[in-house]
UniProtKB/TrEMBL annotation:
Keyword Protease assigned: no
Single GO BP term: protein folding
Organism of derivation: Tremella mesenterica
Full protein name: Prefoldin subunit 2
Coiled coil: 23-50
CDD domains the record matches: Prefoldin_2
Molecular function per GO: unfolded protein binding
Family matches, as InterPro entries: PFD2, PFD_beta-like, Prefoldin
Keywords: Chaperone, Coiled coil
Assigned protein family: Belongs to the prefoldin subunit beta family.
Highest taxon above the source species: Eukaryota
Entry GO CC: prefoldin complex
Length: 127
C-alpha cells in the first residue's frame, strides 16, 4: 500500500467521464499551491532584505526611527521594536512555506500516480 493511500483524494476506480474532471481538479490544486508558494517566497525575501538592512542598526542605533506598514497603516516604531516582530513573521512565513511545499510534493505524487493509474500522457503545448 502506498504511503499516501489513506490521504489520497482519488477514488480507486473512476468512470471514464470523470477522469478528465479529476485530472483538471488535481492540476488546478497544484497550480494554486505553486502560486501561493511563489507569493510567500517573495514575501520571505522582502522580510529577509529588511532584516538584513536593520540588523546592523540594532547595534549602532537601536532607537532610530523606522516605519512599518501594518494593515495599510504606516506606523512609527524604533528599530529595536521592529526587528523581533519581523523575525517572528519571517520564521512564520518559512514554516508555512515548508508546509505548503510538502503539500505540493504530496499532490505531485498523487498526480503522477493518477496519470499512471489511468495511463494519461500530457503532450507539450506548442506556441
Amino acid at each position: 500500500m502506498p504511503p499516501n493511500a489513506s490521504t489520497s483524494t482519488i477514488p480507486p476506480k473512476l468512470p471514464p467521464d470523470q477522469v478528465p474532471v479529476v485530472f483538471q481538479r488535481i492540476r488546478s490544486e497544484m497550480q494554486s499551491l505553486a502560486q501561493k508558494i511563489g507569493e510567500l517566497e517573495s514575501e520571505a525575501e522582502e522580510h529577509a532584505l529588511v532584516l538584513n538592512t536593520l540588523q546592523p542598526l540594532l547595534q549602532t542605533a537601536p532607537e532610530r526611527t523606522c516605519y512599518r506598514l501594518i494593515g495599510g497603516v504606516l506606523v512609527q516604531r524604533t528599530v529595536a521594536d521592529v526587528i523581533p516582530t519581523l523575525e517572528t513573521n519571517y520564521s512564520g512565513i518559512k514554516e508555512v512555506l515548508e508546509t505548503l511545499t510538502k503539500s505540493y510534493k504530496n499532490k505531485d505524487e498523487e498526480f503522477v500516480a493518477f496519470q499512471r493509474q489511468y495511463d494519461i500522457q500530457v503532450s507539450p503545448r506548442t506556441p
